[in-house]
Amino acid sequence: MKIEEKLAISCRILSREGHEDLDLGHMSARKVDQDNAMYINCRGVCLSEMRAEDFDIANFNYQVLSSDRSLRIESALHVEIYKARPDIHCVIHTHPLYATAFAASGNLLKPVNNIAALFVKPLPYFDLTSHMIATPELGAALAEKLGDENVVLLKNHGVVVAAETIEKATIIACFLERACKSYFIAKSFGDINVTEKDKKEAEEKAKQIEKSYTRMWETLARLCNQK
What we know:
Elements: H1 3-19, E1 26-30, E2 37-41, E3 55-59, H2 75-84, E4 90-94, H3 97-105, E5 125-126, H4 136-146, E6 151-154, E7 158-163, H5 166-188, H6 196-210, H7 213-225
Parallel strand pairs: 5-6
Antiparallel strand pairs: 1-2, 1-4, 2-3, 4-7, 6-7
Helix pairs in contact: 1-5, 1-7, 2-4, 3-5, 5-7
């Protein structure tokens, strides 16, 4: 499967999992056969509509190489993360309802179910601005805040997920939204008490999830194809 095709499927998965926000949100993948280049979706297409032809090749000098379409305004967050993290091969930025609301709260996400085990450690929190990450300087600041993690929350804005594979980034993004939704529901019933035993078990659960990113991605891809 071509990278553009896998990215398009991932965008449709993200839409199904609550990441659609009009035609906003973007996803990229490092172009491994070309130095300092990436695939990134074009403007004006919803995640649910995404097809392989909606992805362009752009270099890290912010130039589109594969078409005459203009580059996304927030391409800086992708470029600067790739520069800072050679291990990263996929970056996602979206505005999912529950995760965005959670990012505005400044709270710590608690492992209230199995998939939330991925987020038992406090998530990096970017509050330098709530505006678009539209400059290399802001992109570099965001990459610094991400550090060695896979997720960074953007205050009053959304989320950024970065990972070594398209499958892993997609599943982490999907599970983050599910975890935030579950946390919101659990919180409505009262205070949530997380013990040291809960945290240890969450770490064990996370290791199991990390072995299954490809299988989980394939499952969600099949569900997207169902009528």
